[in-house]
From TrEMBL:
GO biological process terms held by the UniProt record: carbohydrate transport; sodium ion transport
Source organism, top-level taxon: Bacteria
One Gene Ontology cellular component annotation held by this UniProt entry: plasma membrane
Transmembrane segment boundaries: 12-31, 37-55, 76-97, 109-133, 145-167, 173-194, 223-247, 259-279, 286-306, 312-335, 356-380, 400-419
Gene3D superfamilies, per the entry: MFS general substrate transporter like domains
Keyword annotations: Membrane, Transmembrane, Transmembrane helix
Protein name per UniProt: Sodium:galactoside symporter
Matching Pfam families: MFS_2
GO molecular function: symporter activity
Length: 452
């Protein structure tokens, strides 16, 4: 029996639309923005890596706070409400670097702005993923909620990919674009605060846990660690997300063509997201995720050899490549709730906050590593900073190779690690039943024998 209402599901999706406007604005354009305002690519590399030193502290502390602090109004919703103004304010600040100030001030502004934004994003990201575990204890319903969230996230991604290159110059540049998108994102994120209901309550003896117990929860949760090691290996090499604008400008000759590519790739990605609840009723989501990742490697290598000279062929192949990547993009966020249930079952410790904090940390580590790697690779192929700068001979071919082959390598090396992940939908259902008191542990141990 379903526990959540339609308005809750819709609001949950809207929140992800707003949140991912912020996320993909930075993920896709932060490197381009920094180099456009004249910050050297090596300085960008240092900034993004230093911010993650703070991240390692920030995410662990906040995950612990979510699990330890008790609000009368809920476990996750109070934190979501707190994040509503912080994330738009820090986004606007980050994109307000003056172009006529000394380079040291630009670098300082960029570093401070990124740290503030990163902290704000943690506060908005950890609770929204954790919310599914308190909205419902039904595995299928959690999958449905996360699918809805990813569909709306893909719509947001498409909007950012299309709107920024089409209107950025005409409305005055980076700051007006960030301002408009931040206002829109805030409007989308607000409804969940008034519609969601946290129904699943922890048992009294599970609420107050120590930081030592949290460490034990993570240390003994091997599948949480396996999945996110694979995630970081794959995502850390995904420099393509940071290089879209460069490829549009230099390989295709017009940054507005990025919008065309985004539209072509969005349709199969959104269709894949819609199909996931249906597909995963027949096929375990892990197998869909694993083989979609493997197919993605092959498609990237093929795209490199096809090249960028023939736009029609490029458009067709971009459409096809988006199908497996759509499945991967949606499914990757469906494994953390399963790992949280496994950790609860294995250790007896209920700590969803720390599980989702690790997810947030991994996502931001991936963004930092891939951004730093993209900046470093631009430096290696002698990129000249400044909007409209002329690049050296051979730059376009080198950029194309980095854009496609580096992400393919990351996906390839993640597959052997991912193969060690043994949680499946049926085993998670059994563990959830034990965790919620609906099945005795002895019965579950018999059913799970040899599967973990």
């Amino acid at each position: 029996m379903k526990q959540t209402k339609t308005i809750e599901k819709f609001s949950y999706g809207l929140y992800f639309m707003g949140q991912n406007i912020f996320y993909y604005l930075l993920l896709t354009y932060l490197l381009t923005y920094f180099t456009d305002v004249g910050i050297p690519v090596l300085a960008v590399t240092v900034i993004t890596l230093l911010v993650k030193v703070w991240d390692a502290v920030n995410d662990a502390i906040f995950g612990g706070m979510v699990d330890k602090i008790k609000f009368k109004s809920g476990k996750f919703l109070p934190w979501i409400k707190m994040s509503l103004l912080a994330i738009p304010i820090t986004t606007i600040f980050l994109f307000a670097i003056p172009s006529d100030v000394p380079i040291w001030l630009k670098i300082t502004w960029a570093a401070l702005g990124y740290i503030l934004w990163d902290t704000s994003y943690t506060v908005c990201d950890v609770p929204i993923f954790g919310l599914v575990t308190t909205m419902t204890d039904q595995q299928e319903e959690r999958t449905e909620l996360i699918s809805i969230g990813r569909i709306f996230a893909m719509i947001a991604t498409l909007a950012v990919y299309v709107i920024v290159p089409l209107v950025r110059e005409s409305i005055g540049g980076w700051l007006p674009s960030a301002l408009v998108l931040s206002i829109a994102a805030l409007i989308f994120m607000a409804p969940i605060c008034f519609t969601a209901k946290e129904r699943v309550k922890a048992k009294d003896d599970e609420i107050d846990i120590s930081f030592g117990q949290m460490f034990s929860f993570v240390k003994n949760n091997k599948y949480l660690l396996i999945f996110y090691i694979a995630f970081i290996l794959s995502g850390g090499f995904n420099v393509a997300s940071m290089l879209h604008m460069y490829v549009a400008r230099y390989n295709l000759g017009n940054e507005g063509l990025m919008a065309t590519l985004a539209l072509l790739t969005a349709v199969p990605s959104i269709l894949a997201a819609v199909a996931i609840p249906i597909v995963t009723r027949k096929i375990d989501k892990f197998y869909v995720f694993f083989w979609s990742s493997a197919i993605g490697v092959a498609f990237n290598v093929a795209a490199y050899f096809i090249g960028y000279d023939n736009l029609l062929v490029l458009y067709i192949f971009s459409f096809l490549r988006a199908i497996p990547s759509g499945f991967v993009g949606v499914l990757m966020f469906m494994f953390t709730p399963d790992c949280a249930e496994y950790g609860h079952y294995k250790t007896g410790i209920l700590a969803p906050g720390i599980s989702f904090a690790i997810q947030t940390f991994a996502a931001k580590i991936v963004a930092a590593i891939s951004t730093a790697a993209a900046a470093l690779m631009l430096w290696l192929i002698h990129f000249t900073v400044g909007e409209g700068a002329v690049q050296n001979a051979g730059f376009n071919d080198n950029l194309w190779a980095i854009y496609l082959l580096v992400p393919a390598f990351g996906m390839l090396i993640s597959l052997p690690v991912l193969a060690k992940y043994k949680l499946r939908d049926e085993t998670v259902k059994i563990m959830t039943a034990v965790n919620t008191g609906k099945m005795p542990r002895e019965q579950a141990e018999e059913l799970l024998k040899g599967k973990l």
